[in-house]
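Recall that a protein's primary structure is simply its ordered list of amino acids. Everything else, from secondary elements to tertiary packing, is in principle encoded there. The following example makes that idea concrete.
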Amino acid sequence: MKNKSLLHRFVDWVNGDVADDRPGNIRTVGSLPEAKPPKEKPEHTDPLRHLNRQIAAYRVSAVLVCVSLMLALTYTVLCLPTYNDPSAPTNNEVSQRYVEQGMEETGAVNTVAGMILDYRAFDTFGESTVLFTATAAVLFITLSKHTKEWTERGPFADSSKDPILQVVGKILLPMIFVYGIYVVLNGHLSPGGGFSGGAVLGGGLILASSMFGQKKMVRVLSANVTTGLSVACLLAYAAMKGYSFFTGANHVGWEIPKGTPGDILSSGFILPLNICVGIIVACTMFSFYSLFSQVEEE
């Protein structure tokens, strides 16, 4: 029969024959060739088994490294001289110079500020760079999951309608900012400095975000603004202390005016360095809060 019914065509198709007898179509008779059974993969090529072996090797290696480090540190502690041992060598020249000549050489009344922002200023520069690197890493991870700007990533957690937060925040916020600025600017004269003052200012920014809403704060302090401030402060820090490479360890040939110890405008570059560190710390805290306070869109 040239014209087969739909049922016959379906039966032919199931049996492997082409059921379409229309002109121009090629008719193949017979069943389709049998599919070859898949080859069994060798046991050593199983990716899951290989991954499990790598994880086990990593765990064993981690335990061995930790145990070796613990034994090395324990042996080092056992080799140290006992406390108040008269035969133990003494090397207190560095700390003695910090205490006795710190004010004269740095101009800072606060010995700790003179130590971390003059004698060991590059170490503090590295710590500030670590904060900026951490912020950049979190921002890159966030942007890698979303194609839009991070401010459009999702709705913010909004607590600005809390009446208790509004009343308490309006009382505390001015005092927090004033105290944070005081700690930063007075760090070379009394306990404080850029790290502690920056933490206070960062807490004030977080409180302001909770009060006024994160959307309003992002318009003022967006990711671009906080990143730009951090980069500018790091570059200023590097420029102010970079002259040490050209003037030697004791700044030979170019003495920075230190002013009168005890005055607000004293201690050379320590005051502006404290300001740079404070801005970096505050921007880091606010950036982390802004990134983690957004709710993922489903």
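The radius of gyration is 34 Å. The chain has a mean pLDDT of 79.
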